[in-house]
Design brief:
The chain is α/β, with parallel strands linked by helices and 311 residues long. It is built from 9 helices and 13 strands. The strands form 4 sheets. A 7-stranded parallel sheet has the order 3-2-1-4-5-6-11, sandwiched between helices. Helix 4 links the parallel strand 5 and strand 6. The chain binds nicotinamide-adenine-dinucleotide and uridine-5'-diphosphate. Nicotinamide-adenine-dinucleotide binds next to helix 1, strand 2, helix 3 and strand 5.
Length: 311
């Protein structure tokens, strides 16, 4: 992907800022963010670049741009369960009105549009590993529903726009991703465990820690998103690392790798917390020729190094 005008919504967030940085190597990037869960510091180092523009704006409201826009990466949305449960209405708004506004912009500018969807569309899955063909098992009124259901709505809206107006669309179902620039207090497992371990505070495992996740390092995710955008695959594609582990194992590895004296403590499991999650990535492997390269130990080491400077 080169010499394109690219809009990244949510570009001051964790994934968005890494995406902006990578895209900026060969393109012009406009980053739009309302800084609700993001941070200007994530893109501070890009501000001096003449090919980078930052606009503070809430994409749940329409956005007017003078520039030609070739590609839109719609990444804006709170993503951590703690964040989206604090901001349930904003989350539903950005995934509904925000997606609607960005699709209208894509229609006007004739841009290709990529939605950052999520493995949460599968809910607490009854099929394992999860394939794109699985319809999901989502509680429509539970604590996670503001996120799960609005992302499901967003996928349906994107496909409706594609069908009605011929907009060229991509849908990435992103699985748990981690790395530098996650907020230390965003409440997700990796930043919580690393911060707690570095401070020699108790490492909080929810439930018995037997629930599983599959963690993808940020550089692999950015590569996957760019490859998907560059492909001709117009149906949802899982992007994630299929290496599955339980949460207690994650806590133990973090503790070991930080040489921490922290004890591991067990806290109540949040309601509707998915029991198992692992992507089937055969579609991504075959159709966009992508698979993650970074092993958990390696990614965790880089993440710990970054958090050491933060805490
Ligand atoms: P993040 O919270 O770090 O980034 C989200 C960004 O969107 C923030 O900068 C925030 O300020 C911005 N934003 C939120 N609402 C906005 C609005 N109305 N207008 C403009 N900007 C707004 O989260 P992240 O982990 O970087 O997630 C990015 C995207 O990827 C989200 O859409 C999320 O649903 C998706 N995703 C992430 C993961 C993951 O593990 N990180 C997993 C699945 C899906
Ligand atoms: N988790 C935990 N301790 C924490 C934060 C999270 O045990 O301090 C658990 C959480 O209950 C879930 C898993 O780790 O089972 C992943 O949580 P995260 O918030 O990172 O992502 P998601 O639940 O959205 O997959």
């Amino acid at each position: 992907m080169r010499d394109k005008n690219i809009l990244v919504t949510g570009g001051a967030g964790f994934i968005g800022s890494h995406l902006c940085e990578e895209l900026l190597k060969e393109n012009r990037v406009i980053c739009v963010d309302n800084l609700s869960t993001g941070d200007c510091r994530n893109v501070e180092h890009l501000m001096g670049n003449k090919n980078f523009k930052f606009i503070e704006h809430d994409v749940s409201k329409p956005l007017e741009l003078r520039e030609k826009i070739d590609l839109i990466f719609h990444m804006a949305s709170p993503a951590s369960p703690v964040d989206y449960q604090k901001l349930p209405i904003e989350t539903m708004m950005v995934n509904s009105f925000g997606t609607y506004n960005m699709l209208n912009l894509a229609k006007k500018k004739k841009s290709r549009f990529l939605l950052a969807s999520t493995s949460e569309v599968y809910g607490d899955p009854e099929e394992h590993p999860q394939k794109e063909s699985y319809w999901g098992h989502v509680n429509p009124t539970g604590p996670r529903s503001c996120y799960d259901e609005s992302k499901r709505f967003a996928e349906a809206l994107v496909l409706s726009y594609s069908k009605t107006y011929g907009i060229d669309v991509r849908i990435a179902r992103i699985f748990n991703t981690y790395g530098p620039r996650m907020r230390k207090n965003d409440g997700r497992a990796v930043p919580n465990f690393v911060t707690q371990a570095l401070n020699n505070e108790p490492v909080t495992v929810y439930g018995d820690g037997k629930q599983t996740r599959s963690f993808c390092y940020i550089s692999d995710m950015v590569e996957g998103l760019i490859k998907l955008m560059g492909s001709d695959v117009k149906v949802p594609v899982n992007l994630g690392n299929p290496s599955e582990m339980n949460i207690l194992e994650v806590a133990e590895r973090v503790k070991k790798m930080t040489n921490s004296d922290s004890e591991i403590v067990f806290r109540d499991l949040p309601k509707d917390d998915p029991v198992r999650r692992k992507p089937n990535i055969e579609k991504a492997k075959k159709e966009i020729v992508w698979e993650p390269k970074i092993m958990f130990e390696e990614g965790l080491e880089k993440t710990i190094e970054w958090f050491e400077k933060e805490v």
